[in-house]
């Protein structure tokens, strides 16, 4: 049982390049999330998927798109990377969208945009 | 709007002494409160949560947290700190109406010295 996995672990992009961050969970969870973590700040929600087939914007969605490919997988795409998107990205999942459900996090992707 | 404050960027304690990491919150309605721990270059790990019921919540690795509604606080505690407890700790809050949307504090770095 791997939990939440993310690929790649590290990535360096040049300004304007695009890339997709992959996330998969094997816990049969319905809800999935993408967060970014910047130094000295807590995690901020980028996008979430409350259930398979739905996605919605979080606190900081500009410059990102997402795809809920199936129940297991939730990808985050940067169409034209900017230095401001240099950050650590975490994927998380929870059994349901209910407020009391625990979120389980992946190991993160460290992205640098030059 | 919901918010979380972790008033201390850094907490230093000696091994064997009790530790407290502070968290205060603001939310409409009943809060759902969470503590997570992050070790260097790792994802967030769930420690404990308050949903309803007993104000003292026990979690993983000997940690506990006390919910205080009148002070809108949810402080993390441990009776006897270990060097291995040294890490970054995050408090998070959700509201029933916001369901899975978590707001995280900026984090508190706990250092336990031998």
Q: Please estimate the helix content of chain A.
A: under 10%
Shape of chain A: globular
Please describe the biggest sheet of chain B, giving its number of strands, its sense, and whether it closes into a barrel: 6 strands, mixed
Number of helices of chain A: 0
Main sheet attributes: strand count, strand direction, barrel closure of chain A: 7 strands, mixed
Q: From the structure provided, what is the oligomeric state, counting identical versus distinct chains?
A: heterodimer
Secondary-structure class of chain A: mainly beta
- Secondary structure class of chain B reads mainly beta
Radius of gyration of chain B: 13 Å
Which sequence of SSEs, written as H and E, runs from N to C of chain B? EEEEEEEEEEEE
Percent of residues in β-strands of chain A: over 45%
> Which outline of chain B best applies?
globular
- Provide mean pLDDT of chain A, rounded: 94
How many extended strands of chain B? 12
Q: Round the Cα radius of gyration of chain A to an integer and report it.
A: 13 Å
The tally of beta strands of chain A, per DSSP, is 11
Low-confidence stretches of chain B: none
How many angstroms separate the termini of chain B? 41 Å
Roughly how much helix do the residues of chain B carry, as a percent range? under 10%
H/E topology pattern of chain A: EEEEEEEEEEE
